[in-house]
Amino acid sequence: IRLYAEKPADREALRLLRESVLPLAQRSGDVRAAAVVQHNIARILTARGLLDEALQVYQAEVLPVFRRLGEKRLVAETLDEIAGVYLGQGRRRKALRLFTDELAPLVAALGDEELKVRLAGRRAQIHEAMGELDAALRLRQEVVLPWLRKHGPPEKALAEEVFVAGLQIQRGTPEDLAAARASLANIEAATTE
Question: For 164-173, b where at least 16 C-beta lie within 10 A, e where not — what string?
Fold first, then answer.
């Protein structure tokens, strides 16, 4: 099933990036700018469902440049995009290995807590998709939710509470169901204030 409905604007944006913007960046000699354009091309390809082509662009045109330039945050963002492509291809274990083996150490070295939390949420999604509910719940309860309660906007913290309650319901133990009922009551109270 293809959920993406191609928009003419996406097709036009891809054409402009490939035929106008990328050649300008390349002629200027700005390899970083060219890699950023390639990154945008790959994102559009991903959105259009052209996952193999997107993966090739990320791996051949984007990631090596950002690594060579020492752009650690852009490397992390690109690895996150590659993991998303793997997920789209149904390669969940490969996506999880990418998070664990490459992305987690890089994000730890960057010291960017917000990025760490966002990627923990993505890892939780992968674990949930793989049926590994304990791991997904642990990440959401121990990493994502506490950070959002302290630093995030209230609506994101509430959304995370819903994710946690959903995982607890899926696990279905009496303790989980009781915790989910309490969480959902708190969420309802918070949204009606």
Answer: bbbbbeebee
